[in-house]
Every structure is written in C-alpha cells, then in structure tokens.
Amino acid sequence: MDATEPIDSKAWRRGRPLGDPFSVLVYSIIGQQISGFAARAIAGRLTDRFGGRMPSPAELLALDPADLKSVGLSRMKVEYLRSLAEHIISGELQIDHLDKLSDDEVRAQITASRGLGRWSADMFLLINLERPDVLPIGDLGIRSAVRRLYRLDHLPTPREVDAIGEKWRPNRSLASLYLWASTRAAPKPAQAAEPTKAAKSVRQSRPTKRTASRRAAD
After folding, report:
1. How many structural domains compose the chain?
2. Cα 77 to Cα 108: distance, rounded to the nearest angstrom
3. CA atoms within 13 A on the CB side of 127
4. Running along the chain, 218 residues long, what does each successive block of 10 average in pLDDT?
5. I need a surface site. Which of 62, 81, 139, 156 has the fewest CB within 10 A?
C-alpha cells in the first residue's frame, strides 16, 4: 500500500460493468476468453435487438440459439446464457435477492449455473454487491501480484493465495484492489546483485576467439 497510489474504490467500481444483476452475469459470460473490445461489440449487438437493453431471462430463452450465435456468441456461450436464464426462471438463482445472502450463498447460487465459476461470483460480490471481504483467489492478476510481492519461486495456487490472504480479513476487497494496482505500478530500479562465484569463474576464464568460434559453430 505504501508503494501504490491511494485507491478510490468507488471510482474503481464505476469503471467496471454495472447494471441489473442478470445483465452483469450475461456480460460476464460474453466476456470470457475474449478481449474487452470484442465483448462490448457482442454485447452491443445483443442489446440492439432489444432496443438498447439486455433481454430478460424469459426473452433470452425465447430467442432461437441461432439468433444468439448470429451476434457473435459461441455455441458454448449460448448454452451458458440459456443455463443462466433457466436457473433464474426456476428460482434456483434468486437474482433479485442476492444482496440479502451471505458471500458463500451468493457463490453457491451463481456457480450452480453452467459457465459461471468462482471468479465470476467473486467479481460480482466485489463490484456489484460491494462486499468488503472478497479475495478473488483464482484471478491471475492477484496470483501474479502475490508471487511478486512475496517473492515466491512459483505462481501460487488459489489455495495458497487464500491462505496468505487470511491475514487481510475483514478487508480482503481492499487488499485485492491494491494487489491489482501493484501490477500496474512502475517497478523500482533493481539493485545490482553481486556476481556469484560461478559468474566470476566464467569471467576469469574467458575462452579464446578460436574456442568461441567453435562453440558458435556447434
């Protein structure tokens, strides 16, 4: 936190997709494994069919899958969107009452729908419900920041990130924002390391030009 500019969590959230819960989850599915530009284009073509708004769950199910594919959605994402709509209509996903549920209950309801995993649920909790103690342990940016800041020799697993983040309770949402911000901060100049004995030995026994040429030829 000392090495990063202060974070305005409200401003951070305003820069993320907001809206009614169903629209947000639809956008989360659309944006999987594609660029933000492509996701916005596909979402725009979908909303154009409904006068500039996202369809309701019932309207989405009424669309022919071919119509959904025509806006740029893959077959798998069409299935995910239909699964989401079905879970809402059946009542398995209480989309209008998620704000009344605990974090774990929200995760359980969202992840019961195909195509929505722990990361999508955590981002919904963090951005839309503004829950104060959410750590998206599967997020690559979070894992990379933990690796760098804790000087780990490997990319930590979600389980390892979860264990490290225990000390940040009950403010893990704020910790997450700073972890993401740390990946964008300009790194400080690294101090030159002392040469190892092996490096010194190599310098002291530099090969002749003939030897170097033979190695290059090899």
Report:
1. 2
2. 20
3. 20
4. 79 70 92 89 93 93 93 96 95 93 96 94 92 94 95 96 96 93 62 43 42 39
5. 62
Look at residues 18, 17, 25, 19 and name the one whose alpha carbon lies nearest to residue 87: 25
Report if pTM > 0.70. Answer: yes
Residue 79 belongs to domain spanning: 17-128
pLDDT of residue 17: 62
Same domain, yes or no, for 170 and 67?
Answer: no
Cα dist from 67 to 26, 36, 38, 153, whole Å: 16, 22, 18, 48
Tell me, yes or no, if 162 is annotated catalytic.
no
The CA R_g of the chain, rounded to the nearest whole Å, is 24
Nearest Cα residue to 129 out of 13, 1, 12, 7? 13
Q: How far is CA 140 from the centre of its chain?
A: 7
- 139, 153, 162, 218: the catalytic one is 139
DSSP, res 17: -
If residue 41 lies in a helix (H) or strand (E), which one and from where to where? helix 36-48
